[in-house]
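Sequence dictates fold. Next comes a concrete instance:
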Amino acid sequence: MKKVALIRGDGTGPELVDAMLPVLQASGSKAEYVSCDAGADWWEKNKGPTFVPDATWKVLEEASCCFKGPTTTLPIAGTPRSVAISIRQKFNLYANVRPVKTFPNRVGPMGDVDFLCVREGTEGLYSGIEYKATEDVALAVRVISRGKSTKVSKYAFEEARRRGWKKLAAINKANILKVTDGLFLESVHDVGKNYPEVEIEDLFIDNFAQQLVKNPQRFNQTIVLGTNLFMDILSEEAAGLVGSIAMIYSANFGDNYAMFEPAHGSTPKYRGMNKVNPAATILSGSWMLEYIGEEKQGKAVFDATMKVIGEGKHVTYDLGGTAGTKEMAQAIIAKL
């Protein structure tokens, strides 16, 4: 039996996780979930330098992987860095991965899409190195290393090979950030020499963002690879192509550990309203089951969720339905 560290999160996080767990259990999963504290709600009560208490780090280290519900990160100077960034950096989860694929009977405003966003998850501007040079000048350090760029590039090329895809788009702004993005691109192309079947296209971030809403089909069956902040923004933009960020499931992979999470935030204004779409949370959970070796159960959850979304009868308001969070989760269980 695999042990999973479970962070319920803030805002609507706990109710989303509580909607997901019965779905995973109904699939026949035997995973053991160990709940642990982390996030802004815990921090507001306990304060201190971190959103993740020491006891939670111990649970995380002893688990096979982590599932994290949405957590709140306060946009206030002097407050701790986010839970997600803390865990990514602690376990060197260098590949943040978000599939962007049209859902059944849910063609988006720009047509069918199918690509994979791969984002370096531990450095860049999210390294957290900021300071004031003077009272009126604040600086942030963007860290790009050959080691992390190489690791995330290898993940991206391996995923292209696994899927049988022949294209990789390397997102950058090397015409302006000549040294940092120059190093990133050099790493991508060095790794790419071992994958001659995959064509690399270097694309400036502003051009890619425009192409994404003008002609997104040109990126179908493409791995879209980029640095931390660039891909955080672009994968959020890409979510609009398939409906909303509430549909985007994600995973963070390192060499020996992984964290799974919905890509969206904690939406505290909807807390306790049984309103938020649980799809991204449940699909992230299905991916987690596959990761811990429960491939059959994970696929069953994935397929059942797709059926409910495709039928459109028991879906939340953002999908044009009237079901609540719990009701949509129950409909997925019924499909199982």
Q: What stands out?
A: Residues 1-94+248-336 form a domain with the Isopropylmalate Dehydrogenase fold (CATH 3.40.718.10). The two ends are 21 Å apart (CA to CA). The chain has two domains: 1-94+248-336, 107-242. The chain has a mean pLDDT of 96.
